[in-house]
Known about the structure:
alpha/beta, six-stranded mixed β-sheet, 8 helices
Amino acid sequence: MNQLSLKNINKTYGNGVRAIEEVTLELSNGMFGLLGPNGAGKSSLMKTIVGLQRPDSGSITLNGIDIVTDTDFIKQQLGFLPQDFGVYPKISAYDLLNHLATLKGVVNKTARKEQVLALLDKVNLYQHRHKEVHTFSGGMRQRFGIAQALLGNPQVIIVDEPTAGLDPEERNRFNNLLSEIGEDMIIILSTHLVEDVKNLCPNMAVMHQGKVIAQGKPSHFINSL
Ligand code: ADP
Ligand code: ADP
C-alpha cells in the first residue's frame, strides 16, 4: 500500500498570489478526487506534487521518502497527464511511447518493447499502435496519455481534467480505465465534475482560494456541493 503525505504546503507566486496555503493531505492507493473552482489552486498543487515547482514550505513524502528534494525518485514514481499534452510528432503511437520510455530511462530494449506493448494493450490501443496519435479521437488520446503516465511503473499518477471534451461513452470508458488502474496505485483526479468524483473516488478534497476547505468521503458532504 502506497502512502503520499503532504504537510503544510505553501506556495506564493512572484506576483504575490498565494496559490497554496497550509495544505495537508494523506493519500493511499485508489482514486483521490481534487475538486474546486477555477483558480482554487488545483494545478499549482499538482505541479508541486509532480516536482514541476517547489513549495515555499512544507513537506511531501511518498512511502516515507522526501520527494521535494529527491527529484530522481519523483521522476520514477510519479506520472502526470497534463490537461493539454501539446503537439504530437508524426510518428506511430508505438514509436512515440517507445521514445518516451527511453526518456523515462527504460534502457533495456527488450524490456522497453515489452512494457510499451503491455501499456498499449492496457489502455486498449494495441490494435491502433501503428497509427499516429494526432489522428486519434479525444478519448484515444487521453488513454494514450495514461499509457505515457504509466511508463516506468510509477506509484502515483496525477490526471488533470482528463475527460474535458469527451463524449459520454468515451468518458465512461476512460473512467473505467482509471478505476481499474487505481486498485494498485494512487491516482489524483483533478476535476470540476462532482459526478465523476462521486462515482470514482473513495476520498476527496475540495480546494478554495488555495486552501483545502473540506476532505473525506464524497458521500459525507457531496450533497452540499
Ligand atoms: P486551478 O488549477 O484550481 O484553476 P491554479 O493553481 O491554476 O488553480 O491557480 C491558483 C491561483 O494562482 C490563481 O489565482 C492563478 O491565477 C494563480 N497562478 C497560477 N499559476 C501562476 C503562475 N505561474 N504565476 C502567477 N500566478 C499563478
Ligand atoms: P529496431 O528498433 O532495431 O529497428 P524493432 O523491431 O524494435 O527494431 O522495431 C522496428 C520498428 O518496427 C519500430 O521502430 C517500430 O516502428 C516498429 N515495431 C516493432 N515492433 C512493433 C510492435 N510490436 N508494434 C508496433 N510497431 C512495432
